[in-house]
Design brief:
290 residues, alpha/beta, 6-stranded mixed beta sheet
Amino acid sequence: MSRKRRPYDQGHRRLEKFLAVVYAGGWPAKLWRLFPGAAEVRLERHEIAVGRDPGRPPLTLAFGSDFHLGPTTARQTLDNAFRLLREAKPDVLLLGGDYVFLGATPDRVRELNDLVDTVPAGLKIAVLGNHDFWARPARLEVALSAAGAIVLINEALRLPPPHDDVGIVGLDDPFTALGVGDRDSRQRAVEEALDKIADARVRIAVCHSPDGLTWVRGRVHLLVAGHTHGGHIALPGYRPLFVPSPLGKLYPYGRHEVDGTTLFVSRGVGGSLVPMRTWAPPDVAVFVVT
């Protein structure tokens, strides 16, 4: 948390200050939810077969990212997303960051806590995204922790029995750290985290952005990420116009097999600069690991 972070540039700062005034009262989300299907959230289901001991029960993971609590995300969309996460009855809930947009206000922090608290998972693991670091990450960590989530930033843990053959690492946000030295130290931190679960039969990583693949490619069985929004505004055929992520341009959404690692990129749930989406529907995901 003390590591120096890349700030918004002055243009973005001015834009967000302007939007905070213009979007007061959350009218963009209220207007967008009136469009048919605007608040619907897709459920992506996937099986990950890694050859676990057949005597162990399947491990169910649920993953949600980019909730962006704020004036561009309708409460109905959030409710639909968390309903799907609850219905999955996951052993582990994974949260991919970017919990807020336009600041971690007390109301948004409280709402985040309430939503995460509704999911009855035995274990909840969260990472932080760029919008979280640009807000007040300490507030968000407190809210997540109070809802039972463990926030991992280049740290790892082993699951309790009967899934103690599974290790999970939570990665730092690839975009917001500054400087070559920071990149080197972050890579060392990732290596140390991976070493902690090196003997795990199943290794899973959570990162806000698919750019985290650079650090763990071929060393984990599954990497889940968000950040891209699937382009948010995309052309027919789910073709994104712009994705703010180098690897997200290659893998803007969905499941991909890359050098022995299954990468899943969620389109996320909420809106950031604008509430509307085109050919980039919100989603959450469920994985059954066997």
